[in-house]
Amino acid sequence: MKSNENVRRGAGDLIARYGTLGLMALVCLFLAISVPAFIQPSNLFDVLRQVAVVGIMACGLTYAVAAGGFDLSVGSVAALSTVFVAWLLVRNVPVLAALLVVLAVGAACGWANGLFCARLRIVPWVGTLATMLAVVGPQFMLTGGGSQIPGGLGPKQPLMDFLGKGFLGPVPVAALVMLLVAAVAEIVLSKTALGQHMYAAGGDRVAAETCGIDSRRVLWLAYIFSGVLAAGSGLLMAARMGLGQVRIGEPYLMDAIAAVFLGSTVIKEGRPHILGTIVGAIFMGIMFNGLTLLHTPYWGFYLFRGIMVFAAVALSGFRSR
User: Fold this and answer.
1) How far, in Å, are 82, 234, 269, 290, 304 from residue 247 at the CA level?
2) Mind listing the pLDDT tens digit for each residue in 289-311?
3) Which of 122, 195, 260, 263 is the most exposed place for a label (fewest CB within 10 A)?
């Protein structure tokens, strides 16, 4: 009796750990058979390029979730970044200076979220929602009420073109940037004391504080990291599109949420981690690419987003139990 129960538990644990990877493999097999263009190297590398924005944004969100918070503002901060960097570049601000200023703005947005949610103990859904709504205003202010910055990114910007549209060999530069960000984020979360403190605070704040961990500080830092990476994803978005557009990053919020929670079911014990987040982002990218190749109507993408967010959160909750 116990043997059968142990077998069932082992099988359930195996499915919980590797079910997402198995499902992704099945989806790839289906698409390769039904749409041969899916397995063309050019299409697969294009998927990686498209995934980069969501992957970087989701890495930032992973910090917030790991530390016991949540960040609804990442999509809006990304959109603000596209508009702000375009606004700076059309005024001939040096590109490196513009990138640093925009990343600093992302850090400021994260600092504000930390103030609301870590210092003042406002519920994350409310505190970050306030930031999400507040940063829409500056976007319209910078565009003069329009939807885009007139003139795109201004004079030709080789560095921005390289980041958004360039390749190193067959590999998109944007994908390499995502992998670099993910590698650094993984080291911080899994190999440093700060990362372990984030996990401790996210797992049990009271127990963490009993052990001498300043849960408010680590959560505040997690929000700052989330803001910086949200701004970074917006910069990559602007580089890829060649313009700054109001509210362009908001749909990516749902994709980032799905990537984080879907990724938390991969391999490890039901907690958010960077490797899983990247796998989740790639899975989302493959699914969107498949929907496009299958000529799915536009409303299907919104339906898919909703289903994936629900499934990801549900699977994450099941896995954590």
Assistant:
1) 9, 11, 35, 25, 20
2) 999 999 999 888 888 888 888 87
3) 122
Residue with tokens 């440093």: 192
Residue 191 and residue 45: Cα distance in Å, rounded?
Answer: 30
Euclidean distance between CA atoms 118 and 267, whole angstroms: 30
- The answer to whether the CB of 209 falls within 8 A of the CB of 85 is no
Q: Residue 279's Cα: distance from chain center in Å?
A: 11
- Token couple for 199: 């996990």
Q: What distance in Å separates the CA atoms of residue 304 and residue 283, rounded to the nearest whole number?
A: 13
List 148's β-bridge partners, or say none: 245
What is the Cα–Cα distance from 168 to 263, expressed in whole angstroms? 27
> Which of the four pLDDT bands, split at 50, 70 and 90, describes residue 6?
low
The secondary structure of residue 297, as a DSSP letter, is -
Token readout for 161 is: 């073109």
Contact 134, 149 (CB under 8 A): no
Contacts of 102 (CB under 8 A, 6+ apart): 81, 84, 85, 88, 231, 234, 235
Distance CA 154, CA 17 (A): 48
The answer to whether the pTM exceeds 0.85 is yes
Neighbours of 213 (CB within 10 A): 18
Strand partners, 172: 167
Per-residue pLDDT tens over the stretch 92-149: 999 999 999 999 999 999 999 999 999 999 999 999 999 999 999 999 999 998 999 9
Nearest Cα residue to 71 out of 199, 224, 188: 224
